[in-house]
Specification:
This protein is α+β, with helices and mostly antiparallel strands. It is built from 8 helices and 18 strands. Helix content is about 30%, strand content about 25%. The strands form 5 sheets. It has a 5-stranded antiparallel sheet with strand order 16-15-14-17-18. The chain has a 4-stranded parallel sheet with strand order 2-1-6-9, with no helix packed on it. The protein has a 4-stranded antiparallel sheet with strand order 10-13-11-12, with helices on one face.
């Protein structure tokens, strides 16, 4: 027989036991739960990938943790081959890139999504890319393809090899001249022409040359850049540009028409509109996607000549391919799904 005071103590102990048991169970559950998969997103502009990945879980229930910075915000990378997890390098990033007035942070990524160019006219982050490649961090696009896409000569050489394999009708690449420096610049094709210095992109490092006299002047300028190579190709008076886009299995095509009088339509004001994907463009993108071991995200740029309506492939863009503002939300979701699919294969 329990007295009233004894009964009260027993109930207290029972409540304490229940609380302790629940807490121990939760602690055990937390201890056994795998940590979130850390995705390092390299994109300093436009989009919030934490919001795009919000609520995302892998098939095994693991959550994802997004750390989004630009290449310029990566301060250092440490990687080795003798630690417990060599494929997860130690990456120090600028804290202010993640939140205002924050200290620098250390990140150990399981996976990377790269959406910005590692090399621009104003920044060269290839030493950072080399660190991630040393650690063999899995990525979209692959780090090896990103490294090789920075070399315009390698990229254009691959396109010309496709052209030689399947012909001008199926894969019409613009004719080109390559010169390793001013001494090799012996262009013998048509004028006007366009010169492209180094791995120029987005309109930078490009110049229209009207005749051989201007080419001689340009050659003297190139002589002052002994570390740079250049390309020369015939200038095509275009009626509009084409961009064929592939994200995983998803295809789009766009037509860009200049409305500002600029011959470089990607630097002036232009009208960009989505158009149906033609079967011949599918051939272009399917051939190009095998470049450098395979590209998950890519665009093929071409120009349509005004007088003949003939199409000429100009270049391929890889992991940093920009998105049409009107399609960006859907296409970013496609990119997210592509990342999740790859992570489900890994984990």
């Amino acid at each position: 027989i329990l007295l009233r005071g004894q009964l009260t103590d027993l109930k207290k102990r029972e409540r304490m036991w229940k609380f302790s048991s629940t807490r121990d169970h939760e602690d055990t559950k937390l201890a056994s739960s795998p940590p979130p998969v850390v995705i390092l997103v390299i994109q300093a502009d436009n989009y919030d990938w934490s919001d795009i990945f919000a609520g995302t879980k892998l098939n095994n229930g693991r959550e994802v943790n997004i750390v989004q910075v630009g290449w310029q915000d990566i301060l250092s990378i440490h990687a080795d081959t003798y630690s417990r997890d060599p494929r997860r390098p130690i990456v120090e990033v600028r804290g202010s890139a993640i939140e205002t007035n924050s200290r620098n942070k250390v990140v150990r990524p399981d996976f990377m999504l790269v959406r910005n160019e590692v090399m621009t006219p104003y920044f060269d982050g290839r030493q950072l890319l080399s660190g991630f490649m040393f650690a063999d961090v899995p990525s979209i696009n692959s780090l090896q393809s990103i490294y090789q896409c920075n070399d315009r000569a390698a990229m254009m050489g691959y396109l010309h090899s496709i052209n030689r394999k399947i012909g001008d009708d199926a894969f019409p690449v613009i004719k080109q001249h390559f010169a390793s420096g001013s001494g090799g610049l012996m262009y013998g094709y048509t004028f006007p022409a366009v010169v492209k210095v180094g791995s120029a992109h987005a309109g930078a490092g490009k110049m229209k040359i009207t005749d051989h006299h201007q080419m001689s002047d340009f050659r003297s300028v190139l002589a002052m850049m002994p570390k740079e190579h250049c390309f020369v190709e015939p200038f095509v008076e275009g009626t509009y540009d084409l961009r064929i886009q592939k994200i995983g299995p998803h295809l789009r095509a766009f037509r860009r028409t200049d409305i500002s009088g600029e011959w470089k339509t990607n630097t002036g004001t232009a009208l960009l509109e989505e158009v149906p994907v033609e079967p011949r463009w599918v051939v272009w993108i399917e051939e190009a996607k095998a470049m450098f071991g395979g590209l998950d995200i890519l665009t093929v740029d071409a120009i349509v000549e005004e007088s003949t309506r003939k199409e000429y492939i100009l270049e391929v863009n890889g992991t940093s391919s920009g998105l049409h503002p009107g399609c960006a939300e859907e296409d970013n979701n496609h990119i997210r799904d592509l990342v999740v699919e790859r992570l489900n294969e890994m984990f």
